[in-house]
Each structure stands twice: as structure tokens, then as C-alpha cells.
Design goal:
Elements lengths: L1 E8 L3 H8 L3 E4 L2 E7 L1 H18 L3 E7 L7 E6 L5 E5 L2 E5 L1
Antiparallel strand pairs: 1-3, 1-4, 2-3, 4-5, 6-7
Length: 96
């Protein structure tokens, strides 16, 4: 199980209700789950992705720990350009 973070911006209230049922809202639009399983993370992202595709408003960013990825982090986005973590001589950067 890994730390999972979802950040929302300019989305409908339904996202907040759903995300607070499975994660902690540590700041407006910022949700954290310290030990979310990959299966639960995938299901949560499937639900919010479905809403985003049907409503087409706002943006979401999902970040989770993945030991196989650069910097041990993965990023998924909706409503924003895709982002990728790159290692530039030992410094982690976000490539858009």
C-alpha cells in the first residue's frame, strides 16, 4: 500500500463528497490517503475520471508512490497537460 494524493481544481461538489469518503481532505481540494491499495486507487480514479469525462469541467491530479518509477512517483492528470517526472542529473523535475 502506498501514499496517494489527489488534487482537484474547479470541480463539482460531488468530487468532494466522494473523495472524503475514502481519503482525508487536508486542505480545500487536496486529498490524501496514507495507505491506499492499488485496487482502491484504480477504482477511485475510474470513478472521478468518468465524472470528469461526462462533465468536462475542472482539473484533477493523482500522485502515488511507485518504486518502479523515476523518483518513485507516478502522476496522472485530467484537464491539464500530461506531466512526467524526469531525473536531470539527480534533480527531479516535472516535464510537461
Amino acid at each position: 500500500m502506498a501514499l496517494t494524493i489527489i488534487v482537484t481544481r474547479d470541480v463539482e461538489a460531488r468530487y468532494r463528497g466522494f473523495l472524503t469518503s475514502v481519503m482525508l481532505e487536508i486542505s480545500p481540494g487536496v486529498y490524501v490517503a496514507p495507505n491506499m491499495s492499488a485496487a482502491v486507487r484504480a477504482r477511485v480514479w475510474e470513478v472521478v475520471s468518468g465524472w470528469w469525462h461526462s462533465l468536462g469541467r475542472g482539473a484533477l491530479v493523482l500522485v502515488w508512490r511507485d518504486k518502479a518509477a523515476t523518483g518513485h512517483l507516478r502522476i496522472e492528470t485530467l484537464g491539464e497537460p500530461p506531466k512526467e517526472i524526469v531525473d536531470a542529473d539527480g534533480v527531479l523535475l516535472v516535464k510537461r
